[in-house]
Design a protein that fits this description.
about 220 residues; alpha/beta; two-stranded antiparallel sheet; 7 helices
């Protein structure tokens, strides 16, 4: 019964709720030029965001089968994978925590086909708003630029979770914000990767502060 619920009932139900919920939200992009640049890029790139800022961007970037999401192979991941496919994304099953090497290889294969991936900058376990090196290392191997993005809202509920997950309220206002692309050279030194990691973290936090302040 639980399997039937997760596989056939919950995904379309959640899909409908998310659509209806986000349809009521008024949205504007803070920097249209940066967003246009992202959508017009003809080749591979990596979009990255904080874990706590997933919800509205999951809706905003919908119906892009060229965007690949890495989703855990767990039972809970089954539900999320079906939901992501209903939202129009392509899905890769794997974990950034367990079997991380295998998952990284899958993402690299996608980028080498000139497709795009979306990665969580602070990972699935945090620490919150602390950029991890994964997207930068994969960007260096594939010569794919790493592009930060976020959203803010004027009325939201913040969960008491490790990521302080932000859920914008219905009929609220949201701002979407894209940052400048970070270019990662092949065979960057550990020192340079750490510097780019700090640069990505600063960029994401600045974008988030700007988004929250301009709702």
């Amino acid at each position: 019964m639980k399997k039937f619920l997760f596989n056939y009932l919950l995904p379309p139900l959640l899909h409908g709720i998310i659509y209806l919920w986000c349809w009521t939200i008024r949205v504007r992009c803070i920097n249209q030029e940066r967003e246009d640049y992202v959508h017009q890029l003809p080749n591979k790139y990596i979009l990255t965001l904080w874990h706590g800022r997933i919800f509205y961007l999951f809706y905003y970037l919908r119906n892009r089968s060229d965007f690949h999401l890495l989703i855990s192979p767990s039972e809970d991941g089954d539900l999320l994978a079906r939901l992501a496919r209903l939202m129009g994304y392509s899905v890769i099953r794997g974990s950034s925590y367990k079997k991380a090497v295998s998952s990284a290889r899958s993402l690299i294969k996608i980028l080498r086909k000139n497709q795009r991936i979306i990665m969580i900058a602070d990972g699935s376990r945090g620490p919150r708003c602390k950029a991890q090196p994964g997207s930068l290392l994969i960007g260096g191997i594939t010569s794919a630029p790493v592009i930060p993005m976020t959203f803010g809202s004027n009325r939201n509920f913040v969960f008491n979770s490790w990521d302080r997950f932000v859920l914008p309220m219905p009929f609220s206002r949201c701002t979407v914000n894209f940052g400048d692309a970070l270019a990662i050279e092949k065979k960057e030194s550990d020192e340079n990767i750490l510097a780019k990691q700090n640069q990505l973290e600063i960029a994401l936090n600045k974008l988030t502060e700007e988004s929250d302040s301009k709702c």
